[in-house]
Amino acid sequence: MYGILINGAGWVARQHIRAYLQRSDCRIVAVNNRSEEHAVNLVKEFGLENTAIYTDFQQALQHPEIDIVSICTPQHRHCEHVLQAAAAGKHLVIEKPAATAPAELDQMQNAVTKSGVKTVVSFVLRWNPLIVMLKKMLADGVFGEPYYVEVDYMSYNGSWWVGWNEARTIEQGISASLVAGCHAVDAARWLATADPNAAAIPKEVYAISGGRRKGTTRELNPTNNTWIENAPPMEYDGLEIILTEFTNGVKAKICVNAECVMPYRFPIRIFGTKGTAIDNKIWSEFFPKQKDWIEIPVVLPDSSDVSHHPFQAEIDHFIDDCVSKNIESHCSLEDAVRSHEIVFAALECYRNRIPVVFPLNHRNISLECSTKK
């Protein structure tokens, strides 16, 4: 039986709880949150019994039954919480983005390596059924050797999301790609290699940013297609276009658009020497005499609602493969650092207007994402 500490009581914490409750070998033994009221309400909402409530993370980590901690707090607090939990010897499920600065990634990775705990970062779309299917097709050679991948994050982030007031700022959100578009960055890495257990390693990045929304106070609520006047502004560019070359030679284009007036979309395109994928439509030499696209009936990553995301598959993988069998996740903190590095390299491009070559020197990366030359 694994004892679980849920750190945070917001939107995504509920999805972690639902996933753990589906397992007979897990029990939510504690919830920690800055607001005791919110923690109490969360426990009541799920009918949790004998669950301790804390408002101090260090005290919560001293609970004797905790084995795994889900870090579901705002992104600018992830680093301190990961350092504390790793020092306490707890395995970690870390919400994305894992950190808000390269130096934080270094500190977190050092702490995890020193403690020997297992980690998974919630780039949860790796477990989306469409992406699972495409990854298997890549491994089976359906597309031949991939040479170009496109993944886009197209949404309108705003006040409809409970964490927006922190995430919209340069200080705590940093950029559109870090707040949410990093899902597209990670998916591009995952689909840029046919290796079934690995993501591609970045070699070089060039990026530009723009859009029309930064600093404006008129905001769309895409959940009901209405406009809000005098909303607090997004402080960084809403449009980012990131070009990446990986060490295996595959090229990728990632577009992060946090100001598109349309329903949420997450388009995926894979181009290989023997075939092509456009979302769930397939064209390949694998299907002789093909005369039209083959459309696979599968769940697409077509919603920004976290209840639509496959947290169950992620947490099942983490417990069954990583914690129980002592195997590192393909989406461990060590691997996820590379997805974050692409985001941070893009920020450097916006400042200097020159390509960034890997490996990165984290000390030389600036977070002045809104600066334009």
How would the blueprint of this fold be written?
Elements: E1 2-7, H1 11-21, E2 26-32, H2 36-45, E3 52-54, H3 57-61, E4 68-71, H4 78-87, E5 91-94, H5 102-115, E6 119-121, H6 129-139, E7 146-154, H7 164-167, H8 176-191, E8 202-210, E9 219-221, E10 226-228, E11 239-246, E12 251-257, E13 268-272, E14 275-278, E15 281-284, E16 294-295, H9 311-323, H10 333-352, E17 356-357
Parallel strand pairs: 1-2, 1-4, 2-3, 4-5, 5-6, 7-12
Antiparallel strand pairs: 7-13, 8-11, 8-17, 9-10, 11-12, 13-14, 14-15, 15-16
Helix pairs in contact: 1-9, 4-5, 5-10, 8-10
Can you offer a commentary on this structure?
α1 packs across α9 (311-323), α5 runs antiparallel to α10 (333-352) and α8 (176-191) packs across α10. The chain has helices spanning 11-21, 36-45, 57-61, 78-87, 102-115, 129-139, 164-167, 176-191, 311-323, 333-352; strands spanning 2-7, 26-32, 52-54, 68-71, 91-94, 119-121, 146-154, 202-210, 219-221, 226-228, 239-246, 251-257, 268-272, 275-278, 281-284, 294-295, 356-357. It folds into two domains: 2-124, NAD(P)-binding Rossmann-like Domain (Rossmann fold, 3-Layer(aba) Sandwich), CATH 3.40.50.720; 125-303 and 331-364, 2-Layer Sandwich (Dihydrodipicolinate Reductase, domain 2), CATH 3.30.360.10. The strands form three sheets. The chain has a nine-stranded mixed beta sheet. β11 and β12 form a beta hairpin. It is of the alpha/beta class and 373 residues long. The longest helix has 20 residues, at 333-352. Mean pLDDT is 95; it is low at 368-373. It contains ten helices and 17 strands.
